[in-house]
Amino acid sequence: LQLHPPKVSPLWTCCSYFLPSGFQQRLLQIVFSSWISSCFLHFERFFKNVATMSTAVEAVGFVMCMIGFLITGSALANDYWKISTVSGSVIVSQRQFENLWHACAENSAGIANCRDFESMLALPVHVQACRALMIISLLLGLGCMIVSLLGLKCIKIGSATMESKAKMAVTGGIMCILGGLCCIIACSWYGYQVVQEFYDPLYGGAKFELGAGLYMGWAGGSLCILGGSLLCSACKRASPAGKKGGYPAKKVYTATARTDTETTRAYV
Question: How far apart are the first and last CA of the chain?
Fold first, then answer.
């Protein structure tokens, strides 16, 4: 959808010196009013096309939610949430990386040795919170897959009405949005802690950088939010216009008054 403002031609520039100022203002008003009306016409056609493409929009939203759910699960299982940094002239013989479940060290030969976190209560608060948020995100994503699949307009199951299917699609979209928010909050919190430790001059431990797992989590959460927003577009089907309580509107009939000609015809 491209809207281009009217261009001022050289002919108009030359003629503007000879035309009266009032005529120029009137002509400009006509030009801009026609341009604004064309803009409204383009927007009206665009929204009509979106309304007719509701089935495709919901299907695209479901696919985006499914891809975001898979990426979120891959991000949770990824080992590289933070990677040890190589800064300065210090030569490091091994590389360290961690995620929410274990810490690993890889030597120059590419052999990694991982150690799981034994005590959950001994972990930092942000690691425990990120674990909980990521698990909640996956549970919400799984529920979204089941509910929104039953609510898609292109899938017919039993005797479900369009309104009930639309409500299921909207519920799945809301669950997907909440799952994406949980994933983004968890990755952002973990990444903030990594950046804080990296720039803290008083921090004496090993310094790390952001790993690929965080970027995967951000991407998966964003896809879930976008897909859930598209699924929520089914709310238009959940409240159809012109129907209240499932009964058609009443028709009111009014008696028309008889004219004198009609009465005379009746007597004749």
Answer: 68
